[in-house]
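S.,

Sequence below, as promised.
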Amino acid sequence: MTAINSDLPVIRRGYGEGRTGQVHYRRCRPHSSEQPARPLLLLHQSPLSSTQFERVMPALAAHGFDVVAPDMPGFGMSDAAPEGASLDDFAAVIPAALEVLGCTRADIVGHHTGAVLAAVFAAEQPQAVNRLILNGFPLLGQAEREHFASFYFGPKEPKADGSHLLVAWQNRLRSTPGWTDINLMHRYTVEALHRGSTNWKAFPLVIGADLHEVLQRLTVPTLMFTNTGEDLYDSTRRAHALRADFFAYAELSGGSHDIVDEQPEAWVRVVTEFLAD
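The prediction came back faster than expected:
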């Protein structure tokens, strides 16, 4: 993490109530302004939490957004969803975040699992979404489904020699092709272990979902956003091609699926330019 810039808005934390219990969130609001802040939700990838957006939230708030990044159910510090939860149950974190913002409509940016939940919600409740950004969208073929199903983020039985920790470390490296920042790999491995019993449960639902149908039902302005080094580059381009006459498209060069941490300034630029249109 970079040093805090005192000129930028500060991230605060809190809890709201949702269908699955308490929802932990991070919030960053602009300094006092004559214009009302524009509500913006950020939805993280598996198996992480709202910490994924700490490097970009102050910059987004400086652009005039009231930014809320919730931890999805069973991730970070939010209560877990019940056994047998559906994608709709995980997406129920969005109305809880809207309540925190005190509004009924917002822009939404989702990354990987967060992108799927954002799309599911926007397809069901378009009246609650202003603009939608799907950053790394898993519109997968069968071979890709099998590939991603081979990654295991779930509970790891503790071993006296600590070898289960090495398994978690190796899994993180393997699941992040093109990684360059070993400190980032360490941070994300530790975070994945923190809620390892629950922060993987949305992942199989994402892999198995009929996302073609979800994308076909979207009616809100939507940006398909990716970067050339991420593992969902091809699938995001495929998702864009599904409705190229309706979806906008943007990509960054290089990076991995940790692009938010790797290229925060460029990421913020793409997001704010689309939301400003």
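The chain has one domain: 11-141+201-276.

Coffee later?
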